[in-house]
Please model this.
Amino acid sequence: MDGNRRWAKKRSLPRSAGHRYGAQTFRNITKYCGKCGIKYLTVYAFSTENWKRPKSEVDGIMKLFKEYLNESITDFRKENIKTCFIGDFTPLSPEIIELMREAEELTKDKTGLCLNIAINYGGREEIAQAARRLAMEVAQGRLSPDDISDEQLTAHMYTAGQPDPDLILRPSGEYRISNFLLWQSAYAEYVFMDILWPDFKPADLDKALAEYAKRNRRFGGV
Ligand code: FPP
Model:
C-alpha cells in the first residue's frame, strides 16, 4: 500500500492524512476483492524497516491500526472476510496484539476472502524464523537435517497452509519488492502501477487482473 506520503505531500497535507486515506482505500479494495471472488489477499501494512520513520508517523500508523481493528471486527465480519495477521508481533503494543487476536478469533469461521495483514513483516525475517524453528526441531531430535525441504520451509512460513500468491501488485510507481513475501513469490506474476495507493480504485484492480490474465505462466516448464 505504497505512496501515502507522496499523495499527502502533493496536496500539502500532513503524512498522517496520506495514511488515513490509504486506510480507506484498503477497506474499499479489500471488500472489492471479496466481491470479485479472490480467495486470498495479503496487504503490506507495516514492514520490519518502517520503524526507522519518525516516531510521530509510526505512532499515527499504530493509531490507525487500532481504529481499523475496532471497526473491522464489525465491518469485515458482515462481508464474510476471514482476517489473519502475519509478521513478528513482539514489538507491537499489548493492546494492538489483543485486538488482532480478537479479530482473528471472531472471523475464523468466515468462508469468503481470507485477508492477511502483514504487520512488522519482513520476508527475510520470515525465512530466518522458519530456519530457527526447523533448527530447534533438529536439535530436539524431532527432525533430520535431510528432511529439511522446500515443503518443510513452506510449512514454517507465516502463511503455512495458504497457496502461494499468483499476482503481486505494487502501486506508486516504484519497481521493487521491498522484502515482501520473498519465499512465496517464487513464481508470482508482478504488476507495477504508477498510482499512489490512496488514489487506487477498484477499476485499477480490474486493470491489474486483466494484465495478469494475459500472462503465460510456465512455472519453469514449457
Ligand atoms: C507506505 O506508503 C505505507 C505505509 C508504510 C503504511 C501503510 C498503512 C496504511 C495504509 C494504514 C492502514 C492500514 C491498515 C491495515 C488499517 P509510504 O508512506 O511509504 O508512501 P511514500 O512511498 O509516498 O513515502
Summary: The mean pLDDT is 96. The chain is about 45% helix and 15% strand. Helices lie at 4-10, 15-36, 55-78, 94-107, 123-139, 150-155, 202-214. The first strand starts at residue 40 and ends at 47.
